[in-house]
Design goal:
- The protein has 260 residues and is of the alpha/beta class.
- It contains six helices and ten strands.
- The protein has two domains: 80 residues, no CATH class; 123 residues, Rossmann fold (3-Layer(aba) Sandwich).
- Helix 1 packs antiparallel against helix 2, helix 4 runs parallel beside helix 5 and helix 5 crosses helix 6.
- The N terminus and C terminus are likely disordered.
C-alpha cells in the first residue's frame, strides 16, 4: 500500500487507526527482510547412528528432516517449522522467509507451489472459458488483455494447437477437459473464479488458483489470477514481481516471533 495513502487512512480512523497502522508498519518491516527461496522440498529419512552408511547429500547424517534443496546453487536449507513445507515434499516450491545465516535455517512465512517446467518452456497458450454465462463472459477478454500486456505467451485461438490451455470457470476443475463431451454442464453460481493452466493433451492441471468474486468483479479477479501466475514465474528474475509476490503471499501474524 502507498505510504501516503496508509497515513491518510490512519489519520481518518483516529486511535484505532493508529493502533492498526502500528501493527501494519511492524508487518511491513518484517516483510522487507523477507526473501524468496526456490527449490524442491525433500524429506531425509536416514539410518540409525550405528549403520555403516550415512545419508546422501544434502541430507544431514542420522536424522529425519524436511529440507529445501536448491539444485541450481547446490545448497540445502533447514526450516524452523515443518508443518507448511511438509505438505509439499517432492514438489518444486517458492518459500517466503527470513534466512538465519548462522544455522542455514529459513524462518518460514509461507510456502507456494512453483510452476512446473512445462509451463516455463511453453510459448503458446489458448484461453478457454468453460460454461461462462452472464458476467463470466467477460473473463476471456480480461485474461487476453492481461496476457498480452505481460507478453510472456503468444495467445492463439485453437486449444488443440496450443502448448497450454488457460481454463477459466466459476466451478472447480474436475480434471476432465480432454475426456468429457462438451462444456461443463454444472450449474454456474458466480461466487469464485477458478483458473487452471492445463496440458491440452492430457487435461492435467499444471497450475491452478482461485479468487472469490461476485458478478461485478469477474474481470478484475481474472486479471489478478493472471498476475498471480506472472508473479510466481518472475519472482526470481524481476524485482518488482518479487516484491509483488511477497506482498500477495505474505501471511501476516506468521513468523512474528523472530529473534525470541
Amino acid at each position: 500500500m502507498d505510504r501516503r495513502r496508509t497515513f491518510y487512512l490512519c489519520f481518518q480512523f483516529g486511535l484505532l487507526g493508529v493502533f492498526a497502522c502500528a501493527l501494519l508498519g511492524a508487518s511491513n518491516l518484517l516483510a522487507e527482510r523477507e526473501q524468496v527461496f526456490k527449490g524442491q522440498v525433500i524429506q531425509c529419512a536416514c539410518e540409525s547412528p550405528n549403520a555403516a552408511a550415512g545419508c546422501p547429500a544434502p541430507c544431514p547424517n542420522h536424522s529425519a528432516k524436511v529440507l529445501l534443496f536448491d539444485p541450481k546453487n547446490n545448497v540445502a536449507y533447514q526450516f524452523d517449522r515443518e508443518d507448511l513445507p511438509k505438505r509439499y515434499v517432492a514438489r518444486d516450491v517458492l518459500v517466503i522467509g527470513i534466512l538465519d545465516a548462522g544455522s542455514h535455517t529459513i524462518r518460514v512465512n509461507n510456502v507456494v507451489p512453483d510452476v512446473g517446467p512445462m509451463i516455463r518452456r511453453a510459448k503458446t497458450l489458448a484461453i478457454v472459458c468453460d460454461a461462462c454465462p452472464r458476467a463470466m463472459s467477460k473473463t476471456t477478454a480480461a485474461a487476453y488483455e492481461q496476457l498480452v500486456g505481460w507478453g510472456r505467451f503468444r495467445v492463439i485461438p485453437d486449444p488443440k494447437s496450443a502448448e497450454l490451455v488457460m481454463l477459466i470457470s466459476a466451478n472447480p476443475y474436475l480434471g476432465d477437459f480432454v475426456t468429457r463431451d462438451g462444456p461443463d454442464k454444472r450449474i454456474v453460481h458466480i461466487e469464485t473464479i477458478y483458473m487452471n493452466v492445463l496440458d491440452p493433451h492430457t487435461g492435467e492441471s499444471l497450475w491452478g488458483d482461485s479468487q472469490r468474486a461476485g458478478s461485478w468483479f469477474v474481470a478484475s479477479a481474472t486479471k489478478d489470477l493472471v498476475d498471480d501466475l506472472r508473479e510466481i514465474m518472475e519472482a526470481d528474475v524481476s524485482v518488482p514481481q518479487l516484491k509483488a509476490f511477497i506482498a500477495r503471499n505474505h501471511i501476516y501474524g506468521v513468523g512474528t516471533n523472530m529473534g525470541k
